[in-house]
Design brief:
Elements lengths: L5 E5 L4 H12 L3 E6 L13 E4 L5 H14 L5 E4 L14 H30 L11 E6 L12 H21 L4 E8 L5 H8 L10 H10 L9 H12 L10 E4 L13
Parallel strand pairs: 1-2, 1-4, 2-3, 4-5, 5-6, 6-7
Length: 267
C-alpha cells in the first residue's frame, strides 16, 4: 500500500512506533525511524533507518528534516508517535513535570509538523526525487484520554486534548495543499507505557503487576480485550495510504469500545 513512499516516525523505538515502522516497511515505504536512542523503550534494533531526534529540541528537528531533504527531497508520511505519561493529579504535578509533558506530547507534535510541512508539500505537488504523490498524510497521536479522563493523568489528558485541537487546525490549514491530517486516539494498548502504568503507584495498579491486572483491564472493555501495537499500526497504515484520500481532520478512536459505554454499567 505504501510502495515508493517516504515516511518519518517519531517515538519509533517505543512499542507502537516500532510496530508502525515495521508495518510501513512491509508495505514498501522507506522509513526514517526517529527517537532519542536506538534502543528506546525496548531493547534491540527496530525497523526503519534510525535517525536520532529530540522532538522537544527545534535544532534537532531541523537537522533531521534537513537530512531527509538532502537524501529524499520530499516526505509523504509523518507520524507523531512520541509521547510520555505522568501519573499524577494537578495538585501532585510539579511545574517541571507539566512543562515536560507539554514539551514532548504537544510542542513536539508542533515542532515536527512545522518543519516537516515543506517536505510534505513537495510530496503533495509531485516534487522531490523520483516524483511524488497527489497527497501527503500527517498522523498525530492523541488518546481517548483527550475525550474522557482516567484518574491521576491530569497533564497527559491536557496534552492530548491539545493534540486533538491542533490536528483539526492543521487539517483545515493544509488540506488545500494536499496534506491530510488525522489523529489516532488509542485506549489501552499493550506497550511499555501501559506496563509502567500498571506497575505504578498512581492511577494504574497501585503497585500491582501487569499479570494481576490483565483480567480486570480486559473486563472493563466491551470486547474483553485490550489492544496491541499492531492494531494501531493497521489503522496508521490505512491513514497513510492513498486508500484514505478522503480522510482528514478526524480523531480516530481505537479502544475496543471502552469509551462507547456508560461507565456505571460495568458494575
Amino acid at each position: 500500500m505504501l510502495e515508493g513512499k517516504i515516511a518519518l516516525v517519531t517515538g519509533a523505538r517505543g512499542g507502537i512506533g516500532r510496530a508502525i515502522c515495521a508495518r510501513f516497511e512491509r508495505e514498501g515505504a522507506k522509513v526514517y525511524a526517529t527517537d532519542l536512542s536506538e534502543g528506546g523503550s525496548l531493547d534491540g534494533p527496530g525497523a526503519g533507518h534510525f535517525l536520532r531526534m529530540d522532538v522537544t529540541d527545534e535544532g534537532s528537528v531541523i537537522a533531521a528534516m534537513r537530512q531527509v531533504q538532502d537524501e529524499e527531497g520530499h516526505l509523504h508520511i509523518l507520524v507523531n508517535a512520541a509521547g510520555i505519561e505522568i501519573e499524577k493529579t494537578v495538585e501532585q504535578t510539579s511545574l517541571e513535570e507539566w512543562n515536560r509533558s507539554f514539551a514532548v506530547n504537544a510542542t513536539g507534535t508542533f515542532l515536527t509538523s512545522k518543519h516537516a510541512l515543506p517536505l510534505m508539500r513537495a510530496a503533495a505537488r509531485g516534487g522531490g526525487r523520483g516524483g511524488g504523490s497527489s497527497s501527503a498524510s500527517l498522523i498525530n497521536f492523541g488518546s481517548y484520554d483527550g475525550f474522557i479522563a482516567d484518574p491521576g493523568l491530569a497533564a497527559y489528558c491536557a496534552t492530548k486534548g491539545a493534540v486533538h485541537a491542533l490536528t483539526r487546525a492543521m487539517a483545515c490549514d493544509h488540506g488545500p495543499e494536499g496534506i491530510r491530517v488525522n489523529a489516532i486516539c488509542p485506549g489501552y494498548i499493550d506497550t511499555p507505557m501501559l506496563q509502567s502504568f500498571f506497575n505504578g503507584d498512581g492511577s494504574g495498579g497501585a503497585g500491582g503487576s501487569i499479570e494481576t491486572l490483565q483480567k480486570a483491564v480486559r473486563d472493563v472493555h466491551p470486547m474483553r480485550i485490550y489492544g496491541t501495537p499492531e492494531d494501531i499500526a493497521n489503522l496508521v497504515n490505512w491513514l497513510a495510504s492513498d486508500e484514505a484520500r478522503y480522510a482528514s481532520g478526524q480523531l480516530w478512536v481505537l479502544d475496543g469500545g471502552l469509551s462507547a459505554q456508560v461507565q456505571q454499567m460495568r458494575l
